[in-house]
Design a protein that fits this description.
Elements lengths: L1 E6 L3 E2 L4 E9 L6 E12 L5 E8 L7 E8 L7 E2 L3 E12 L2 E9 L6 E2 L21
């Protein structure tokens, strides 16, 4: 039994089209087949998962090849840090019994945000020095 996901690329900016192909063979009596766009956190603490879009495939057979497409959402962006990371993915789920997934990046300019380089967080101080509490 084999299931695969093939994408034209793996890094996307918000609003870009995520398109690809899925295929499977060797599965008997496939009841349902779905392609899902999802994100998940990995690292310290509890794991969170969010499914953003689902494409249900009509009348799946024991061997298929089909195309799919999603629009990359604006949030949350892909990021990685020492304690936690947020990873996007495309997943093919066959019921009963099969799945495949492919990690992707969805973030501004299509590049994962590294939390260990905080310069992306730097903004000008919204509070002038004068008048601050404790000054």
């Amino acid at each position: 039994m084999n299931a695969t996901i093939t994408l034209s690329k793996t890094e996307f900016a918000p609003g870009e089209t995520i398109d690809g192909n899925i295929s499977w063979h060797g599965f008997q009596d496939v009841g349902t087949a779905e392609v899902r766009l999802f994100w998940q956190t990995q690292g310290k603490g509890s794991r969170d998962v969010g499914v953003v879009a689902v494409e249900t495939l009509d009348l799946p057979g024991p061997a298929e090849q089909r195309s799919f497409s999603f629009i990359a959402p604006s949030a949350p962006p892909s990021f990685s840090g020492q304690l936690i990371s947020l990873i996007w993915g495309v997943e093919l789920v066959l019921e009963p019994g099969g799945s495949a997934s492919q990690d992707i990046v969805i973030a501004p300019r299509g590049k994962e945000i590294p939390l260990d380089h905080p310069e992306w967080l730097e903004i000008s101080d919204p509070f002038p020095k004068k008048g601050r509490l404790g000054s």
